[in-house]
Design a protein that fits this description.
homodimer, alpha+beta, Arc Repressor Mutant, subunit A, Dna Ligase, domain 1, 3-stranded mixed sheet, two-stranded antiparallel ribbon, 44% helix, 19% strand, DNA-binding
DNA sequence: TTTCCATTTCGGAATCATTCCAGTTTGGTT
DNA sequence: AACCAAACTGGAATGATTCCGAAATGGAAA
């Protein structure tokens, strides 16, 4: 499964005419290995360093930007908090824990028809983002 | 109508034991006058200066934070973009134009039951945020 | 395989919204 | 009128992100 995601990402990379560098390969590996963790730049940077000899923070930023602009990954932007990256491109709802910062996916398809919205408001939807902030199961258990 | 919102805000301020200062009064005025515009800090700061003799940027930040923490207003956080503030506390969907940055409200109640989510995922929802990014009617008309 | 150049990488400086800080002022209660 | 916790100030600090010019390199073409 992870192999498929990885091969798919590399395939898309070439399709888009982007070069396959050791840095990018390392970043892809980290993304795939942590695909259910919505990793941030710091984690990706740290882990990528273990895989490729030379990777700079600038490169990680540039690469993640490039990838998300080309639709390889999804960028979840946050305020006063590192952006998070998701290999899962499907529309889903993010459950974001206020306490530990964990981001879980909630897979109920959003019952919002872009067509209805366009018809009623004239607004053309290109990206959907649904966040539910609150507390995850684990944090609720833990005292304090 | 606007009068009611203003009086209501001032009422809540006193209820919460917060002091009514000329700076806060000016900020409330700006919020109410621009209630359908989702104003950001810069706009609020600039306009508030016209109303009160002395207002500092720090105060605007502190005040907006205080207000939203006390539930007087809603803070919409953005990445790489000023936060926006909303006097309308009801759950609604924000239509955010990628081009002009306008934020419009879309008033269809979200058909997501917090109870269902809690039951299925153990996640307790405290805040809902739904954003649909795309292009507004006006920007679609305009060429280039 | 060698050449070549657009792309990528690098690290350090710059950006910018926001927060922090320490000192001063002030609303509103006693 | 006195008092003090809360609020205000402006300048410095923060931290994620972007920008920059120079150096390195993937991979297509020769």
């Amino acid at each position: 499964m992870e192999i498929n995601i990885k091969e798919d990402l590399i395939g898309q990379l070439k399709e888009k005419g982007l070069k396959l560098t050791p840095q990018r390969l390392a970043i892809i590996d980290v993304l795939v290995e942590n695909c259910d963790r919505h990793p941030g730049v710091t984690l990706i940077f740290t882990e990528a360093r273990k895989k490729a000899k030379r990777v700079s923070l600038s490169t990680v930023y540039a690469t993640l930007k490039e990838f998300s602009e080309n639709g390889l990954i999804k960028e979840l932007e946050f305020d006063r908090m590192e952006n998070r990256y998701d290999v899962d491109l499907s529309d889903h709802i993010n459950l974001i824990c206020k306490r530990c910062g964990t981001i879980a996916d909630y897979d109920i398809p959003a019952p919002l028809e872009p067509k209805d919205i366009a018809r009623k408001s004239g607004f053309v939807v290109t990206d959907t983002r649904m966040e539910l902030h609150g507390y995850c199961r684990d944090c609720l258990k833990r005292p304090d």
